Amino acid sequence: MDGTALQSEPRLKSLGAEPDVAGPGTGQPVAGSSQSSDPFTPRAERARKLPRLVAQSLALVWSAGRRELLVTTVLQLLQGVGIAAQLLIAKRVLEAVVASGRSGGDFGVVVPDLAVLVAITVALTFAGAVQAEQSRILGELVARTAAVAAPAAPAGVSN
Asked: Quick check: 57 and 142 in contact, CB under 8 A?
């Protein structure tokens, strides 16, 4: 062990924790390895529980704030479509600028597409701000709902 690990052992023991002895030859998985981080729960069992956990999470979010969840979801979908539109219009603008530069033509043909690009960018910025605020509100609603529902489960019992 190196000197920093030796120095941290008394502190860990004073906190009621054992030093981390993971590594080759210790029987413990090395950080970042493909082995399970929880030796008591096999990976397959955790994978089997995932759909139920996702469903419970969605049910909690749905019960906490339907409107906020729907607004957030719709805004995220619209932002995805807006970004795709931005890319397509930006490509068209760049192609028009290059074509105008080669032929010595007028750059005025780019202005309408550029105006649409700016409008989409402004709309996406606004939608992003609204979506972020709705996400914050939804997070608070979920925290409140979870805090109210938490005393219903006996202490020390987990799902």
From this structure: no
